[in-house]
Write a structure and sequence with these properties.
By secondary structure, the protein is mainly α. Helix content is about 60%, strand content about 5%. It has one domain. Helix 1 packs antiparallel against helix 2 and helix 2 crosses helix 4. The protein is globular.
Length: about 130
């Protein structure tokens, strides 16, 4: 009996977002981008509770720039700062955070993934203020 194991079924569902006139895939994170994006995300989260929100904002923009740069090298932090609103930045950060949770939450229970998503959303709200 021949059977095929379809590993493509393990890939997260595609979801695209338009950001500054370009389309980005946020449904899944390619393996080559995964570790740098996860490290940048962890760095952002380490600076969320600091008194000055500027470090948090700068790290958030850096994460978005890193994420975008895999397909759009011109999306530097300076470009994003000059062209995106705070709401666009915080919304895109939230989408990337959800993607990280989906892509790297394999093996976690649904409850753990839901709690991580809620925690990320709470922390992202601070960026809007």
């Amino acid at each position: 009996m021949n059977s095929t194991i379809n590993l493509d079924e393990l890939r997260a569902e595609s979801q695209k977002v338009k950001f500054l006139e370009k389309d980005f895939e946020v449904g899944y994170i390619p393996c080559g981008a995964g570790i740098p994006i996860l490290e940048a995300y962890n760095e952002v989260m380490q600076h969320q509770d600091e008194d000055g929100k500027q470090i948090f904002v700068d790290k958030t923009i850096g994460l978005i720039s890193l994420f975008c740069s895999f397909t759009e090298p011109d999306f530097t932090a300076e470009f994003i700062k000059a062209n995106a609103s705070n709401f666009q930045v915080s919304s895109f950060f939230h989408l990337i955070a959800q993607s990280i949770i989906k892509n790297f939450g394999q093996g976690l229970s649904d409850e753990e993934i839901e709690n991580m998503a809620k925690e990320s959303k709470k922390k992202e709200i601070g960026l809007k203020q």
